[in-house]
Q: What sequence folds into this?
């Protein structure tokens, strides 16, 4: 049923990252030069029970879980609409379609996580468990491809051998998906193990026709922008997705060169304030950017901060945060009054 197209070739992509790939980080990645950005993995049953709300204060579209105190499960805006791919965690074709249908008009593509080896995913039949259940994996993808007007892709890990990996990709390709992301580690390998770009290369050089997005180079291969191309070449792929290197300093995606982390944190915080992100999520992301700087005096002050205003204060942005929060409160009041008229 796909009617909208998305070119997955020659793309620099921010990979899906739970808790990291929320709206402020996605917008910053796009500002720095990402062509496409993935959301964090959103679990189908969580997403499908959300209510779609047009947030007039922020100019965003929010998918809100009313049963959990109006928790925003997914927030997006017009700025990223043509470039955002929502990743679903699922073990059930019906649920996956229901969740994807809810967001279909607001994202450019749907990706299915078929690589996550974490216990939470695998126990629920999601992520890497789908590699061992090809019938279900294909059913999920076929259902999405047939039921959605936007392209569908999936993200996997390599298998134990090159031959198995190629066969695996071939089967997934047969469902009509438009691209496949391949993390060059198998399900038993941890992030600290060296990835296998040569396996991804063998897939690219096989008779698979859909674009392959290579992944897994952050720690061992990618320290600066130029390294991105080198890893891509090792994998023979035209598109690449980056996770940890972007988590640590998202300006790695910047062609003109990486920016100092303190500048990046400030840019990130501005977006987090502008899009009213929750403090716990913001803190988590900043913490991953600070890394060893957490041991400094500034870092210790940061670790104690809990409220958005306190986090911003550490980076001399308290006034900006307060001013924006007041602006939003005022706007909210005006909207409420308007509604009453
Ligand atoms: C991840 N990864 C991941 N993968 C996925 O398919 N869905 C997800 O939600 C997440 N979440 C996530 C969170 C964090 C904090 C990290 C570091 C990683 C895996 C990620 O997308 C990628 O496949 C690996 O990190 C390997 O790529 P890099 O880090 O070498 O570029």
A:
């Amino acid at each position: 049923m796909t009617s909208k197209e998305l070119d997955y070739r020659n793309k620099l992509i921010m990979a899906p990252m739970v808790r990291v790939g929320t709206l402020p980080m996605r917008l910053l990645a796009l500002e720095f030069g990402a062509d496409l950005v993935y959301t964090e993995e959103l679990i189908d049953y969580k997403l499908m029970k959300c209510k779609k709300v047009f947030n007039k204060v922020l100019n965003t579209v929010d998918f809100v879980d009313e049963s959990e105190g109006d928790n925003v499960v997914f927030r997006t805006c017009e700025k990223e609409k043509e470039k955002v791919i929502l990743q679903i965690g699922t073990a059930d074709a019906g649920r996956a379609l229901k969740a994807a249908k809810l967001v279909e008009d607001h994202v450019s593509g749907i990706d299915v996580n078929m690589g996550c080896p974490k216990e939470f995913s695998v126990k629920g039949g999601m992520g890497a468990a789908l590699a061992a259940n090809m019938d279900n994996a294909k059913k999920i993808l076929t259902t999405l491809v047939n039921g959605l007007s936007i392209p569908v892709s999936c993200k996997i890990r390599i298998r134990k051998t090159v031959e198995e990996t190629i066969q695996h990709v071939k089967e997934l390709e047969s469902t009509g998906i438009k691209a496949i992301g391949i993390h060059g580690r198998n399900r038993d390998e941890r992030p600290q193990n060296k990835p296998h770009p040569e396996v991804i290369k063998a897939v690219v050089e096989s008779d698979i026709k859909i674009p392959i997005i290579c992944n897994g180079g952050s720690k061992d291969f990618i320290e600066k922008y130029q390294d991105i191309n080198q890893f891509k070449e090792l994998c023979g792929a035209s598109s690449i997705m980056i996770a940890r290197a972007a988590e640590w300093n998202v300006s790695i995606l910047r062609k003109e060169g990486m920016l100092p982390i303190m500048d990046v944190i400030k840019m990130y915080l501005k977006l987090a304030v502008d899009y009213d992100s929750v403090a716990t999520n913001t803190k988590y992301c900043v913490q991953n950017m600070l890394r060893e700087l957490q041991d400094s005096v500034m870092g210790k002050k940061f670790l104690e901060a809990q409220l958005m205003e306190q986090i911003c204060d550490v980076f001399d942005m308290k006034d900006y945060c307060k001013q924006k929060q007041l602006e939003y409160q005022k706007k909210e009041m005006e909207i409420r009054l308007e509604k009453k008229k």
